[in-house]
Amino acid sequence: MVIHVPIAHMAVARPPAKLRTTGLGSCVGVVLYDPWARVAGMAHIMLPQATEGREGPPAKFADTGIPELVRRIEEAGGVRRRLRAKIAGGANMFPQLSNDFFRIGEKNVLAVKAALQELRIPVEAEDVGGTVGRTIEFDPESGKLTVWTIRGEVAVF
């Protein structure tokens, strides 16, 4: 069974379920997992910060989504000190535009890494940046993250 995680959402799973999200352009897919408990969570982060006036579910923002994902993994039996992260996405989808506004992918990656660092969760693997969209799937059984690009490239982390 594959659980699809839509944009600005999150989900938690145990084997045999897998977690998948599609359409990662400037968004960042964040996977947190406890390899011992074999519980994992995935969030499809859309923006760096939940600032005043911005509304949406916690997973829409790195600064609110990652702590909430940790909480949900703990509820499912994961232990925070054992959590590991794998991240993908954060592409620059408008490379011809140098305006800082269009560098949201880079800002998302920095915000995700800052939130993980604050929670002392190490990033074990990443496939970030570039100019192509991605789809990711995580298998809590093996701990492997598969990344597909829109160019047809496949990588396993």
Task: Explain what the structure shows.
Strands 1-3-8-9-10 form a five-stranded mixed sheet, with no helix packed on it. It contains two helices and ten strands. It has helices spanning 62-75, 104-118, and strands at residues 2-4, 10-13, 18-24, 28-34, 39-45, 84-89, 123-128, 134-139, 144-149, 154-156. The model has no long low-confidence stretch (mean pLDDT 94). With 157 residues, the chain is of the alpha+beta class. The two termini are 20 Å apart. The longest helix has 15 residues, at 104-118. It is globular, with a radius of gyration of 14 Å. It is 18% helix and 35% strand. It has a single domain, classed as 60s Ribosomal Protein L30, Chain: A.
Give the structure's gist in a few sentences.
The chain has 157 residues and is of the alpha+beta class.
In terms of topology, how is this protein built?
Blueprint: E1 2-4, E2 10-13, E3 18-24, E4 28-34, E5 39-45, H1 62-75, E6 84-89, H2 104-118, E7 123-128, E8 134-139, E9 144-149, E10 154-156
Parallel strand pairs: 1-3, 6-7
Antiparallel strand pairs: 2-5, 3-8, 4-5, 4-6, 8-9, 9-10
Helix pairs in contact: 1-2
Shape: globular
Distance between the termini: 20 Å
- Percent range of helical residues: 10-25%
Radius of gyration: 14 Å
InterPro entries: CheD-like_sf, Chemorcpt_Glu_NH3ase_CheD, Cytotoxic_necrot_fac-like_cat
Pfam families: CheD
GO molecular function: protein-glutamine glutaminase activity
Keywords: Chemotaxis, Hydrolase
